[in-house]
Please model this.
Amino acid sequence: MSFSRDIKAELCRNAPGCDFCAAAECFGILLYCNTFSGGGIRVVTEHRDFAAALPRLFRRAFNVRFDAAPQGDAASGKRVFVVNAPEKLETIFETYGFSSDNMLAHHINLGVLESECCRRSFMRGAFLAGGSVTDPAKRYHLELVTGHYNVNREMYTLLLEMDFEPKEMARSGSYVVYFKQSGAIEDFLTLIGAPVAAMDLMSAKIEKSMRNSVNRRVNCDTANVTKTVEAAQQQIDAINRLNAARGLDGLPEKLRQTAYLRLEHPELSLAELGGLCLPPVTKSCVNHRMRKLTNMSSPPAASAANGEMSSECETPPE
Model:
């Protein structure tokens, strides 16, 4: 199952607290369903739990039955619910202060949403009919899609009043209010009655954060190892050139010791080489000695250009 399907299944397990909340939830469904007009109502869903809950919800809110509804419990496919009887449509429209004979544009009747619980129910209905959430393992995106411009604008304003910060857009003849912040999605899911889904999103976010942190650390360690290996190889090459040109036994003791340690331990960092010196020295001291060895292995012209002095190693303060 998708993440959106899991959320809707959780929502459908929670019945509205009162008849007013049932009407508010149906209001959200109707404004975000396929068809809601004086000519009829048509709700289409592929979600089995939503399809099972919808008839009970309409009976509680309006005391009406659908004129057409899916037969049996199909395992998959679209399920279509239809109301087209004039007297039923009139009952439903009157519940929200509308008239089926004069319906030019849809609006959210805030009188139906006076209490906080009714607002939550309205949001839940809107999500059941027109909402979706992307799998949080991939990205964070929740949206509510309706075919009514005024409803979308009023939903946007309503969410602002409820301390959310949504965004909105038009897409292929529909209107969308959406969130891209994981925190806002968590709060919205908790608000409409899906706390388990909100916790799942939080867990996915923590897991993603930990995975990204591990990846960054691995990449950083890999880069450091690569840098250490490349530097060590350059030092070994310089020491080999110096050995071929003049030998290592004639070097000052500190330089000779460092050169042999590098040849014997090509995999160690400068700090680790410093720990093997007798007496142990710091990383900066080993680095200073390596620079001396590298400059000594260079041609005389290059050494002069770099302003290098004699091959005697003066160890810096440790």
User: Anything to note?
Assistant: The chain has twelve helices and seven strands. Confidence is low (pLDDT under 50) at residues 301-318. Residues 277 and 300 are 29 Å apart (CA to CA).
